[in-house]
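G., before I forget:
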Amino acid sequence: MAAVQGGMSDADIETDIKTEPSTDGFGNNNANDGRVLSASPGSGSSTGSNKQTAAVTPEDQQTLLAVLQFLKKNKLIESVEILRREAGLPENSLDPKATESAGAGSGGAAGIVDLEGGDVSSLLSRVTGSSSAGAQAPTKAVAEDQPDVRVVLSAYSQQGDPTLYEVYYSDLKKFIETVLDCHRAELSQVFYPLFVHMYLELVYNNHESEAKAFFEKFSGDQECYYEEDLRVLSGLTKKEHMRGNETLLDFRTSKFVLRISRDSYQLLKRHLQERQNNQIWNIIQEHLYIDIFDGMPRSKSQIDAMSGSLAGEAKREANKTKVYYGLLKEPEIELPLDDEDEEAENEEGKPKKKKPKKDSMGSKSKKQDPNAPSQNRIPLPELKDSDKLDKIMYMKEATKRIRLGSDNLPSVCFYTFLNAYQGLTAVDFTDDSSLIAGGFADSTVRVWSVTPKKLRKVKSAADLNLIDKESDDVLERIMDEKTASESKIMYGHSGPVYGISFSPDRNYLLSSSEDGTVRLWSLLTFTCLVAYKGHNYPVWDTQFSPYGYYFVSGGHDRVARLWATDHYQPLRIFSGHLADITCTRFHPNSNYVATGSSDRTIRVWDVLSGNCVRIFTGHKGPIHSLAFSPNGKFLASGATDGRVLLWDIGHGLMMGELKGHTDTIYSLRFSRDGEILASGSMDNTVRLWDVMKAFDDLETDDFTAATGHIHLQDNSQELLLGTYTTKSTPVIHLHFTRRNLLLAAGAFNP
Amino acid sequence: MSAMAEERRQKHCSVVLPTESMKAMAESVGVGQLQEDSCVALSEEVSYRIKEIAQDALKFMHHGKRRKLTTSDIDNALKLKNVEPLYGFQSQEFIPFRFASGGGRELHFYEEKEVDLSDIINTPLPRVPLDVSLKAHWLSIEGMQPAIPENPPPATKEQQKVESTEPLKVVKPGQEEEGTIQGKGQGTTTPDGKGQCLGLIRLKPRSTHELSVEQQLYYKEITEACVGSCEAKRAEALQSIATDPGLYQMLPRFSTFISEGVRVNVVQNNLALLIYLMRMVKALMDNPTLYLEKYLHELIPAVVTCIVSKQLCLRPDVDNHWALRDFAARLMAQSCKTFSTTTNNIQSRITKTFTKSWLDDKTQWTTRYGCIAGLAELGPDVIKTLIIPRLAIEGARIKAVMEGPVISNIDKIGAEHVQSLLLLSPKYPIPYHHLFI
């Protein structure tokens, strides 16, 4: 296997710092931190990191200073040294006064138009903010931390007359209700973040009754998709509650992003200045990020399609990075033709025979997909002989694949788990559909063989010694016939198993659990090989890379980690989500990872740099399933709101909305040729969608890539090809076989 | 705790635990005389923390792919906060809290019974729960959902009802997708978008009268078994009719089969076959997934025929056609109970029919028996208002036949049966003396 260097580029420092406090107690941070950062020098060859170090902008420098200060405060001297050395900062730059004044300066100078200002202070508060999130764990750091929390919250201390809050808010409400229709929808976006911040300000300043009255008066006006957040907010009535409340800190530390057209924004600004409504204006300045665009104001439906996430919409810049979404070139494998096949499928056989030849001949002349990453952008393991055999099997099967379409629907085979007593929490199929694995609430992992071939263990070491290693069927001989059975149980976790994934070569199985570990199991010995520790909180999902070797995991600690099976610590930490990461998926080219979260956003991360390259907003509930299309161009996501959203990764655009499910969507899968999307849900149905039509319709009609303001047609009913109801069995996993038969799985819930 | 979640959904404003609860809890740990202020502060704090935990517990429920919050979710949520979980709450189904009140105070408590260890040791071990197993079936075959027991019935009773009462609104899961496919077919002539717009004007869907080959085979097997000679097979077939969820497409056939069968066999006086057919009616009525209302116009006449027909068998003096009449009368009563509504008025129409022929002097004793049996099954109200007032007259009539000159043996047997029937009905309070005045 190719060695992978831990090339964590410096650009990630900011993200790293954000995550670590929430990961675990402080004792662990030290080690964690030192390792992540010191990994960089080892990767001197990595071009990306060098470049970025050289180009430290003043802003970055301030960020660094803030980080250093934080580290120092927490007595992480070693990390401070390393970071300083790496960033090339002089030793005296660590003067606390300097940073502080910088922070104060920019905070105070937050001009009216310059919305980017106050970055350092916000960063600082973010650092300290999340550290208090970590402080929920009763560590000795709690006492030390409290001043920092005060810093975060003190932003709320400047206040006007509490009784006037209602007046301010209703005044703005009245104003927005009377503006022209075209602006109203846009300006209405301001309501929710303003409402929350004003409420929190009231709570912070101990105006409990005013806060309550304010909440009761205006909470009903908010969009229905903020219901969940409002519920959390309604519980929060005391200043003491604010300390250690993640939702609040998220809200406070991340600026709520709004997209407003220039005209509408001018209108709002003029109004607030005329009325001398400083209270609201301050909030807009400090806690909101308004992404102003030129052009037509958006309509209500356009806004509704994109809003709903915990921190507003994605900034437009966030989705500008180029993403290499193309597929990697497949290695050239000569397809041996055995006689049986040739006879059986004479017609099919011929083109098949030619195809691989053409590939091998014309591989140089045939241009690579311009959107594909270079073949070795991230090091991938070399193909083993067994992998090659599997590839051949795959290609053979692929020729027998049924071409699906709206008039040629797949058959669905349903695997029901009986007697699971509501304990089935995760399912996975192998790519060749020969094995099924189930994760259970009782901490067990079970594997079933669904072919006549039974599961066998490898013989014990003593018995293996007796085997003739030169014999041709040595792989057969090492297996112990006596252990053959249809299913195997693996014990090791100490909590419910929430995520499960087979390795592409079917030799390993990954499982992630409530106990905070990800375990790697061998499917030859049916024992646990490694327990990857690092999350410390429940790990909601994990998945192997389509090329094996790497895997990704994400959980309650709000970070996703990229691991390699032979490293006991993560290679990358993807941090930025504001709430639990609920699902993780690898891009088919293994260069990107998509994560869905309870903060109702989807992020796509670059495996090479560790940067977030896409943020998709639009879901109105926690995201529980993701699926990449086989060509790597599209992403589908399903959430508790029962909707499936389709995304164009290259352009960073929403492509469609599929409505129909009435409950959480736990599984999504594209058919092997990407024609059909299958979705499985808690509402006991499997639904099939004509995604080709969805993509085609959009591209021909209103493709406004420049602004990203798409008009979604409400055509879910046309796109829905079929609904298949199960007998009280929630559908929690879907899988297309290589021949495009749809397999579904779930536990019978009498 | 789930109840609390519910409450909050209804109203956002914060729900706070009553301060009395704080006092009760304080007392339970030995702190008496808690200040009112402290109680308020405590209850607010506790309510807030409980809500936090409930929110986290919901996460575990979602990831556990369940709809029901369990105690283990709460435990896991507590663990997240580094709080020791609550031990001893392992109940899967319900939270074993008991309610008590007294002295103006209300209390929820967890009942901890004292258990004798020897009892536990001596009780036989419960059965080991079944292990998890995997079972595969076809959820759909090329877009069509096969009607097999593993799949839910193709059309639920409600859908069948909607279909029969409001045929223009019908959207069945199977047909819905057929519709779109048809739309595609039309798309070759008209642009797709337009075809879809037209689709909005819902036409009454052509109901498919063709049965699949499997269904035809099934129908043949079942009907043959039902009227065949092998009793075991018949029992199996009836069992299938009574339980199979996918029969609704075959219902019109079964209904016609029964009504035609009765028509022919009454003429031929084939008692056995009539009994078999009535048992089929019974099985259809027992099937919970069938919406029979649409076929009552065929079934009820058949059943009524079996109750009141003058002659049901070749040798009325020997054969026990009375049992068939009783059985059919019970079926009739059952269908009155389930299907009678204010619009179709089945019960009153049936009652009228029975009474009318009973009152007729020329009515044969067999029919008379059927009418009375049919009425008697309809319940105490009918007996009270219709049968009892007639008892005296009927008694006289029976007396006349029994004691009078023997005209025909059949009449005499009929009269005997009517008499015993009237005597037998005493599930309901019938004053005996009415019979023999």
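DSSP finds 25 helices and 31 strands in chain A. Chain A touches chain B through 77 residues (CB under 8 Å).

More on Monday.
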